[in-house]
């Protein structure tokens, strides 16, 4: 029985010259529970030592509804200030364009200031991948494009991406950019499968965008399934994971990575062991039968 091509050990970020790992580590919860800089550094080391070079954060990570805006970036900044050599080992991604408590703002004034603030908090000169976090429907995409191009021109950012954009919103922004977008960050998991059939991943392949999958474990629902659908997907993943000697979460990462769009799952765990474990997904093999078995479980109906 033939198997699907394995993910490469390294790949390009979209059409850029930036090489990234096939897995990423996300810092949404980095600043929780009073985590110290030394504790955060241990997690950064765990990712890098596991071969995970793409580290993804955002200016709103750490915001709890009242305060904490920028805390995750600031904590990473402490790590990088203490160990400057870490910066050259990572591809640093961040996001902006959300102004707490929840207005989206990508006006030139706000977005340019947000980029500068992220640089200051992380104590870096350049962000390798800067992503618009969620679309601001009150800012013309031409204005967003101009702000991003200005930041590129002076070296504040190296490449551009979007997160949570619709296909039409991606097309609109791309139309006004001189520099191609290189990444899109939607929610993708064995429990969020819309993108496989609604054109999101087809558009990414057409435009050469690297899909970065946030919440690849379905917000934790794959680890603690409750609904019949969740349990059915977990069961299929467990079967495949058991045959290959890996955990259910590793199988979920591997399932995403087997797709031809080159999906990069963003590991959200803040446990060094779980971060390192994720790299086992690189060693998985997938048949079409096994891959589609997971999809059928998620769809809840047989394929036509």
From TrEMBL:
Identify one Gene Ontology CC term for this UniProt entry. cytosol
The record, for PANTHER family, names:
NADH-SPECIFIC METHYLGLYOXAL REDUCTASE-RELATED, OXIDOREDUCTASE YDHF
Q: Which domain of life is it from?
A: Bacteria
Task: Output this protein's name.
Answer: Aldo/keto reductase
* InterPro entries associated with the record: AKR, AKR_Detox_Biosynth, Aldo/ket_reductase_CS, NAD(P)_OxRdtase_dom_sf, NADP_OxRdtase_dom
Organism lineage reads as: Bacteria, Pseudomonadati, Pseudomonadota, Alphaproteobacteria, Sphingomonadales
Source organism of the structure: Qipengyuania soli
UniProt domain NADP-dependent oxidoreductase: residue ranges: 23-291
Quick one: signal sequence residues?
none
Q: Which PROSITE patterns does UniProt cross-reference here? A: ALDOKETO_REDUCTASE_2 (PS00062)
Q: Name one GO molecular function term.
A: oxidoreductase activity
